[in-house]
Amino acid sequence: MQLPQKRWFRIGEVARHWEIPLSDVEDYALDEMLQLAVFVVDLPAEMGSWEGGRMGEGPALQDLPVLNGPQPLLRSSLLEIFRDGQAEVRAFRAAKPNTYLHVSSDVPEMIVRRDHLIITREERDRFEREHGATSTPEALPIAEFSHNEDFTKVHVAGEWHSFGPKQAAVLRILKLASEADDPWRDGKRLLGDVGSTTLRLTDLFKRRSVWRQLVQADGKGCYRFNATALSPERRRIRLFRKTGRVMPKMGAARMATMIDS
To answer: What's this model's pTM, rounded to 2 decimal places?
Structure first.
């Protein structure tokens, strides 16, 4: 039986989906990179505008909606929830600039706790599109894979991708580690080894979403080179010149001669 898609998710579900700590989801929300919400039912509210009011006048009331479904929370509310575990919420993030959305003053206090926080599917998908966040519970199979000597250019599934010096350095370290007994490497240690000032490996590669096809995460802060790219069935990694042209196929003896020369 095929069930309908969910319209929203608990933040713990999204953290597991992205294979990052829950604290990272909270950090993204406080940095206003990710919008968290709370689900409400039949909640009376007041909506208005701050525009056009003369000095000394209050906001202009425009509507008295009844809210249902996910409502985006303000940064101040999130900070209180993360700090104290809960917050009394009297306002939500308005959709347009210079507008407000308040809970009606005659409504009893609304307490929002950490386990009430949700992310809508639309917001989750937007974040993934913009930041290349995907889940990798298992190694994604790579149909075609090759790279130049320093990993600044990688060919994956018929397309060339370029990586910066620090990104390429991470790939080289992980590729070398794949030949050891333990191929996993700590993400923060990797960042330090390549001289990156970012706090997360996802930030280093945020403009190169294809890295998720090359690197596996264990969900605990460690990474390894994609095992499927290294399996016997997928070791047809073709060497190519620095110009980017793929070398023609040749016999093992001929290849060895060229490499030694």
So the answer is: 0.52
